[in-house]
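Here's what a typical entry looks like (2,5-diketo-D-gluconic acid reductase):
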Amino acid sequence: MMEEIILNNGVAMPVLGFGVYQIPDAAECERCVLDAIEVGYRSIDTAQAYRNEEAVGRAAEKSGVPRGELFITTKVWISNGGYEKAKASIEESLNKLRTDYLDLLLIHQPFNDYYGTYRAMEEAYRAGKIRALGVSNFYPARFIDLAEFCEVKPAVNQMETHVFHQQVQIREVMKKYGTRLESWGPFAEGRNGFFDNEVLKAVGAQYGRTAAQVALRFLVQQGIIAIPKSTHRERMVENFNIFDFELSPQDMKAIAALDRGESLFFSHEDPATVEFLINYGK
């Protein structure tokens, strides 16, 4: 049975979703989303920058699952930053996704005029076009900066979160605002020998589970939303089957000790990274 998280505005969000990052091929993305929905996923996470919103929209429509049972997330990209551009891009995303509302809309990166972007999002929220608002990749300083000066407090902050980077600091910061952490890259894309990690494997052996299942269970058991991505149906099934076992306090402690407290991908404070992100999709 899929567990849900109640966001700070009362909206219920599945604690486990399906991510479509790096599936730009339309036919492949459509197949993957249809497979995921058939497996049982109801939360689908896309973004303007992934260039696959249309495929997600088609799959959601073809699935036959009522729109009210799906939870669709997309994100406003940097090049659509600022009130006017963001406002237009929200309408474009709604059209591409073939829906008259979004369940969750995030600012994808903490760059450009994200205040203007958020104002456009708040306006769409009040108009009933968005059920919940949030951000993505907003590290503590940027997160506080926005959260203190906006009217609708972010419901979610989607960050790189996995056993090697557990985001302990940002979780403490976000508590004040009732903001939930959502994990992108819950498997760290296999980096650092993720799937062969001895701790994850040893814990999994006790329950007859894989390292991947243990890693996901570790997140959702703490109320962290996760959106694993896979193009293989059998992996989608494996990732989905994490609600019929529970990690012990000793297991949780052993996995918590894997935290390195730093990104395995990139730093938002590295000038070269910021320049790359800002120029992407221009």
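The chain has eleven helices and ten strands.

More examples are in the samples folder.
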